Amino acid sequence: MRKGFVLIMTLLFSVALSAAEKLPKKVDKARQAVAGVLTYKDGQLKGSGTAVVVGSNGDVLVSYGFMHQSDSAIVIDAKGKARPVTGIVGLNSLYDCVRMRVGADKKLLGMPLSATGASVGDELYMLAYGNKGTGAVTKVKVSAIDSLYSNAYYTLDVNMQESYESLPLVNADGELVAVMQPMAVGDTCSYAIASTITDELVATSVTYGRGYYNGIGIRTLLPEDKETALSCLYMQAVVGDSLSFRRTVNDFIAAYPNAHEGYMSRAEYMAVYCRDMDGASVDWEKALSCGDKDAEVYFNKAKVIYSIVQSGDTVSHKILSKDNAFAALDKAIELDAQPLYINYKADALLENGMFEGAYECYVSLAATSLRSAEIFARAAQCQGSLKNYGVAVELMDSAIGCFDEHSLKEASPYILTRALLKYSAGRYRESVFDYNRYEEVMGVVPNANFYYMRSQAEVKGKMFQQALNDLERAISMEPENAAFYLEKGLLCYKVNLLEDGALALEDAKKIVPDAPDVYYILGCIYSKASNKALAVENLQKAVSLGHPDAQVKLDEMK
């Protein structure tokens, strides 16, 4: 990086115009738009270079490599007036261009951009910085033109020098045609990027605050288009740190003082990051005063308050209550009954066990753009929690009805949920049918608990052989799960398969030698098989382990 003051640069040109050659008037005037730049890092001078002022709003083009790792900069115009850089408008690291901005005034002369560019063989004027516009001027000729995306890339017939970097190339009309590129190792000529790139040097929602922009410590300015600026604001909320987001949201408010989004975003920041609920309340009121999107503001307020309350944060403030969150949410719905707002309320009510209110919200959404299997399933969950299992099953029918025959695999979680609801409703054989349908849709179900649950429905539906088959599958998948052996033993006892039941429970004893239920059921099996000795032995063990019914069974055997 070059060191020292840019004034010395006027002595470095070897191909300057002779003193006798008269410059075109407009070229001479264009020299007034060439500026010097001083960069700083932590208050210390980092380097000096050349830039060109373009347009009338204080925009300056300079090399990215020169600005890299600086945290402030000063632009010195042709009259020697210094202006601090207020921000970065945009950059392109590939073409080593940065567009930055200083405070504009009538005395800051900007160079107009060429609309036509240059052709091979054209002569251009390379302008250096000098006090009062007296910088050296070098004539160069365009020897080749390449096209890089939408911009021309010029090859020039002059050997590149480090001091040429960022110098403007103008035509006889004093219009900026191109800006010199940095010198690369082995270059035998020099290159320049067309000035048309200027309009592309604007931060977008994708680039703002990210990537190469972080290589410069000077703040990035928001785009002048409001919607793009808003996108940058929202993106910064996702990818930026809290400090950079606060700076961005303050910039947005300064640029768009009548836009509710800025105040709303800052209110969320104050509440979530700073727990400054008074500051947040002030900004929510300012957002409401904008008067164009009150429902959106109330919804934002409701979400923020609710999220803080639900997080269990111990911060205390009168605004932080579920009642205030729901009041703001109801106000948003009153002003604009958007399905999104109603869905949020439904989820919040469900989360807080307010099943009737949640159910009403979910049902109302069935007639909106949010109609989906998930909406019906949530409504079914509400009714299931209220023990209205019949209604819940009907709602799950509607959920499954949202899928066609080609997407049944996507419907499988809802089919399984309906099986559970039918079991709770006492419709056991229908429950088994849904379990079977789930297995058919999924193919292999590598889950022992699935077969255990289906066996429970099969037992209740008096489908005993199917239940035994499922318990065997569960045992084969989890041979160390004593609960499966216990269930098999109990079922075998009920259906008089006493030998099979005894074998299952003897296996269970090896896994859980101190489980009273195992000894109790085994004792009952041996009693039913007329093996009194083993019956008494196992029942006495169950008594010693605290089984509540084992002693009664022993007394019955006396």
Produce a short descriptive summary:
The chain is of the alpha+beta class and 558 residues long.
Please describe the structure with a list of short key phrases separated by commas or semicolons.
Thrombin, subunit H; Serine Threonine Protein Phosphatase 5, Tetratricopeptide repeat; 4 domains; six-stranded antiparallel β-barrel; six-stranded antiparallel beta barrel; 12 strands; 15% strand; disordered N terminus
Instruction: Label the CATH architecture of the largest domain.
Output: Beta Barrel
Mean pLDDT, as a whole number?
92
* Rg on CA atoms, Å: 39 Å
CATH topology of the largest domain: Thrombin, subunit H
Net shape: elongated
Largest sheet: 6 strands, antiparallel, barrel
Uncertain regions spanning at least 5 consecutive residues: 1-15
Percent range of helical residues: 40-55%
Structural class by helix and strand composition: alpha+beta
Q: Report strand order across the widest sheet.
A: 1-2-3-6-5-4
Structure description:
The protein is built from 21 helices and twelve strands. The chain is an alpha+beta fold and 558 residues long. The radius of gyration is 39 Å and the shape is elongated. The termini are far apart.
Task: Give the SSE map.
Layout: H1 25-30, E1 34-41, E2 44-54, E3 59-63, H2 64-67, E4 72-76, E5 82-92, E6 97-102, E7 123-127, E8 137-148, E9 151-156, E10 168-170, E11 176-180, E12 190-194, H3 226-239, H4 242-255, H5 260-272, H6 277-289, H7 294-310, H8 322-335, H9 339-351, H10 355-365, H11 373-385, H12 389-400, H13 408-424, H14 428-442, H15 448-460, H16 464-477, H17 482-494, H18 498-511, H19 516-528, H20 532-544, H21 550-557
Helix pairs in contact: 3-4, 4-5, 5-6, 5-7, 6-7, 7-8, 9-10, 10-11, 11-12, 12-13, 13-14, 14-15, 15-16, 16-17, 17-18, 17-19, 18-19, 19-20, 20-21
